[in-house]
């Protein structure tokens, strides 16, 4: 997770240093999500054929190799291919990891395991952003460090004495059926994919283009990751107490408000970059706004899942989560490219214009849907904080899904 949090942001900063245009950068970042989406559909079959350990070893090695390709060949086309390989490999690692956790858990420990997994994911991703200070992005050392971290992750699983679990495939509810079940949840998840993919990949590009120092870029990215995780708990608590649509609409409109404030704090164009100066009121306000923005925007992923679960029986929570992941993935594949087009047109603050537009779309559609459907309380559906990159296998760790993963062999 440390390597994962480091590599995408490193490439974003390096892309600006290499003076790639915003369209090229958008293509590079989109490559990751296309690979992630393709791997999510192909790798479960591969795990069933050759087993968890071989798949983990193969794709951790591929991820370790692909980051070195970026260091050797500094070219947008090569980097896009490399990001595709990375996305395909990373989702393979997640699938193995979460499948193994599911196999080792029982109905008494699933909630604890999910909490620990969430904590490790959050700390790993946020720590990875701080590694931007390790060495200059123009040098090869950061790329070597990422490769070393990914290679080191192979050691525990290759040396384990535990028998690898049998892979259990996850069913999916179709996009059409999900839309019929919850139009707001489906549309909101699609837009959330567009928002989050840009936030977590183009964020480093934005900060670098605004002439932040490397420390300021790492702080900017760290605050997004850490505040997005921490705010999930209080937002989730209140969403369980009231109509979840109200919380979704509130979070997305407040996020839109902070997008406007962030544009104001940072200047209105590339020619008016207050943030390129030394620490001052504008920059302090900017970092304060980004903490509050991420705190409102990042929990939307899990809010959408919980809201869809409000309208389906408990036994379908996991398959619905799988379908929602597909919707999120389709949105995520388009997010970086749309954002880069807006940045090409409006300058660096096109980044926040992108986020603002799609938050307003969620909010407007949410207000419309409130007039079409009355509130329905489902006591079996509760908000559980989840990492943004969790797979359907990881969603099964949530105790509220009711997934019975105990077996006669374990008893």
Describe this structure in words.
With 411 residues, the chain is mainly α. The protein has a single domain, classed as Growth Hormone, Chain: A (Up-down Bundle), CATH 1.20.1250.20. The chain is 73% helix and 0% strand. It has 18 helices and no strands. The chain has helices spanning 2-17, 22-50, 52-72, 76-104, 110-130, 141-152, 154-159, 175-181, 183-201, 203-209, 214-230, 232-241, 244-266, 281-297, 300-309, 317-346, 350-370, 392-395. Helix 5 (110-130) runs antiparallel to helix 11 and helix 10 (203-209) packs antiparallel against helix 11 (214-230). The longest helix is centred in the last third of the chain and has 30 residues, at 317-346. It is globular and about 55 Å long. The chain starts with a helix and ends in a 16-residue tail after the last helix.
Q: Which sheet architecture does the biggest sheet show?
A: none
**Average pLDDT value?**
87
CATH H-level homologous superfamily name: MFS general substrate transporter like domains
Quaternary state reads: single chain
Shape: globular
Query: Tell me, what is the CATH class?
Result: Mainly Alpha
Low-confidence region ranges: 269-274, 405-411
Q: What is the CA-CA span between the terminal residues?
A: 33 Å
CATH topology: Growth Hormone, Chain: A
Structural class: mainly alpha
Query: Total number of helical segments?
Result: 18
* SS strand fraction: under 5%
Record field, number of beta strands:
0
């Amino acid at each position: 997770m440390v390597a994962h949090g480091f590599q995408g942001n490193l490439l974003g900063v390096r892309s600006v240093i290499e003076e790639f245009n915003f369209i090229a950068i958008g293509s590079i970042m989109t490559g990751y999500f296309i690979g992630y989406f393709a791997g999510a559909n192909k790798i479960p079959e591969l795990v069933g054929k050759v087993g968890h350990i071989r798949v983990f070893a193969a794709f951790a090695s591929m991820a370790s190799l692909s980051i070195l390709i970026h260091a050797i060949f500094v070219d947008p086309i090569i980097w896009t291919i490399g990001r595709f390989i990375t996305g395909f490999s990373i989702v393979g690692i997640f699938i193995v990891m979460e499948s193994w956790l599911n196999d080792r858990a029982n109905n008494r420990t699933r909630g604890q395991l999910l909490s620990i997994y969430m904590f490790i994911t959050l700390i790993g991703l946020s720590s990875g952003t701080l590694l931007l200070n390790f060495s200059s992005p123009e040098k090869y050392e950061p790329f070597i460090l990422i490769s070393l971290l990914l290679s080191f992750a192979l050691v525990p699983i290759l040396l384990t004495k535990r028998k690898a679990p049998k892979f259990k495939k996850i069913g999916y509810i179709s996009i059409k059926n999900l839309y019929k079940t919850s139009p707001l949840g489906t549309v909101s998840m699609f837009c959330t994919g567009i928002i989050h993919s840009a936030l977590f990949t183009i964020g480093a590009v934005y900060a670098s283009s605004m002439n932040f120092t490397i420390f300021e870029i790492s702080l900017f990215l760290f605050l997004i990751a850490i505040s997005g995780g921490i705010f999930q708990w209080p937002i989730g608590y209140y969403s369980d107490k009231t109509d979840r649509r109200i919380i979704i609409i509130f979070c997305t409109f407040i996020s839109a408000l902070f997008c406007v404030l962030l544009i104001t704090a940072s200047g209105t164009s590339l020619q008016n970059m207050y943030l390129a100066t030394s620490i001052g009121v504008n920059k302090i306000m900017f970092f304060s706004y980004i903490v509050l923005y991420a705190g409102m925007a990042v929990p939307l992923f899990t809010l959408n899942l919980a809201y869809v679960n409000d309208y389906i029986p408990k036994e379908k929570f996991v398959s619905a989560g799988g379908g929602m992941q597909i919707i999120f993935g389709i949105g995520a594949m388009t997010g970086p490219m749309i954002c880069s087009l807006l940045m090409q047109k409006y300058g660096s603050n096109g980044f926040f214009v992108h986020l603002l537009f799609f938050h307003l779309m969620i909010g407007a559609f949410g207000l419309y849907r409130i007039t079409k459907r009355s509130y329905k309380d489902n006591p079996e559906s509760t908000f559980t904080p989840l990492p943004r990159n969790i797979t359907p296998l990881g969603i099964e760790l949530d105790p509220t899904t009711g997934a019975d993963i105990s077996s006669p062999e374990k008893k």
